[in-house]
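User: Round two. Same drill as before: sequence, then structure, for each protein.

Assistant: Same drill it is. First protein:
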Amino acid sequence: MKTNIIKIQYYTSPCGNLCLGAFEDKLCLCNWTEEKHPGRVDKRLQHRLAATYIEETSDLLQEAIRELDEYFRGERQQFALPLLFVGTDFQKQVWQQLLTIPYGQTISYGEMARQLGCPTSVRAVANANGANAISIFAPCHRVIGSNGSLTGFGGGIEAKKYLLALEARCR
């Protein structure tokens, strides 16, 4: 029986709508409302946290909105909110690695796999990136194909292009 609560609030960004979620005192969700695999992230979060969504604000969600507003205005390059990654140990390792990619820079999935010490796990790294529930805050948009291509992104390629262009312009 689900007894925990994930407070959610919607946010309209310049490149798509996002659903923000807070569990206890951490951000656990910043996901595109129109995504490639609808419901996959929501099901994982709700199942692993034994929680249900309730549309309600909180101080943490208000801070997330403030930080996103600053980011989209080009005023913020690093986020300060505590994050809660919900997934397998390997996924969490990949998502933590996302936090080390500098603002305005990109790396390839292959380079990320090498940095994680598993150079033959490029596909697994790409899949973990695709399962990231905290887009923008954990900047999976900064990971690209080894040939420089903008490969799949939960918010769509246009959103990925927008985010990379914003960061290139504001760094």
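Second protein:
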Amino acid sequence: MLTFPPILALLTSCAPPPEPPAPPAEPSTTLGMPLPAAWPSRAATLQRLETPPPTRALRIAIDPGHGVGSNSGNSSCLCIDEQDHNLRVAQHLAQSLEAQGQHPTQLTRSDNRGPAYSTRITTAQQGAADLLISLHSDARGEQHHWLPSPDATCSWNDGNPGFSVLWSDEAEPALAEARLTLAAALAARLAEAGFLAYDGHEYQGIYEGHPDHPGVFLDRHEPRKRVRMLRRPTMPSVIIETHNAWDRLEEPRWQEEATLDAFDAAVLTALADWAR
């Protein structure tokens, strides 16, 4: 007597083998850092603004923040000390200003051995600087950590990106107004070049945002803690916080020459606006 296998078993034996499972997706990384699978765009493509000729020459003091004693500033998500970032950006900006041929510049420090902030201010004033720009980066938000090597731990936080320009109204009215107009010109041109203006979320109680100038913040520390570089110079002075050094998108961008070029062009254009 002939027997036949069940129809279901026969059909199953003739079916093609199942597709092998897809390999797991490689995690997104930037310079070795783990990133979310879908990374939101945080800012427009950076561009170099076309710098108009200045109406007058400005003597400019550029202060690379920190860099004295143990005051090295923050450590970025790439484990780069803020003092080194500030000096690199300041030297690049000074070279751009000198190449433009109209604005003589003075760096308040050239290495990580100082001088103190009070000496930097005095030097800028003795050099008859027309303005002082102090360069920094921020470290904002709750710290998360990643380990690039067994011997290093770097901090990151992606929730607070963007630049800020800080100023102080602690001065006679004409000087305070000059500080504000300088800060506003810098913030406007940085935004035009594609840099993102910080929304001030982490500044509650220490800096006050300006309603008409995104990215511009007034020093609102209690009086004994107010920022010396903003209130002490006798010429207009501001601090530019270039970005959030813990942000895993912003920090790698600041290692690129194109970012420095776009930043320099924005500052040059803002100075031309302010000098009119």
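The radius of gyration is 26 Å.

User: Perfect.
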